[in-house]
Amino acid sequence: TYSGEFGKCRGFLFNCQLAFERSPEAFTLDSVKISYIIGLLRGKALDWAEARSHDPSFLRGPLSQFLTEFKQTFDHSESPAEVAKKVWNLRQGNQTVADFAIEFRTLAATSSLDRGSLLGAFTQGLNDRLQDQLALCQEPPDLEALIALSIKIEKRLKERSKGSRMSHPPLTQTRTSQPPVASSSGDEPMQIGRTQLSQEERQRHFAANLCLYCGQPGHRLSSCTLRLKGQAHQ
């Protein structure tokens, strides 16, 4: 169906033409073809057809006259210069080359740009990395060859990027517990900076059965192995 949307007139008429060609025996008369087209109209497009139907010749044809008036009303075609400008302004962005090529081909088909201009416009629209690689290659003979080469280069760049990540796994840091450093002060290395344990801290260590030297449970200062090792190195 067609409701008079801007930019969709040609696609609608193209589908109608396909229907005529698929069933030529059903569409032998222009009046039948015109009735078929009007039957698919909706909204403002149907309002237009209804208003024009008061003229009997409008429904009888010929079809060429009906299509001319239909296009004048709904097909606001862009000028060749406007289409060419759109082609040159196309950019790949986050698309793959294949997706970008579909968009480019669709617009280029309605333009009058020559071979060289199409090659230049497509290359300019690609991302910088692809343009850099294409600069090292011999210029393809036509647009299709350029698209195929660009897809091949993009695939290779992705493979290299994936291989690089696999061969250089991220480094992970492991934590290792460090034993308390022995102090050379003798009896009480459990200090904050250079200050010995306060009376309150000493009482807490005694109450919890913690060593005054290393802070670990199960032994006292006099039997602390770390303290004895520290004295042995003095």
TrEMBL record:
The keyword Methyltransferase does not apply. Signal peptide: none annotated. GO terms for molecular function: nucleic acid binding; zinc ion binding. PROSITE patterns: ZF_CCHC. Pfam families: Retrotrans_gag. Residues 211-224 form the CCHC-type domain. The keyword Zinc applies. Residues 170-186 have a biased composition (Polar residues). Keywords: Metal-binding, Zinc, Zinc-finger. InterPro entries: Retrotrans_gag_dom, RTL1-rel, Znf_CCHC, Znf_CCHC_sf. Residues 158-191 are annotated as: Disordered. This is CCHC-type domain-containing protein. The gene is CU459095.1.
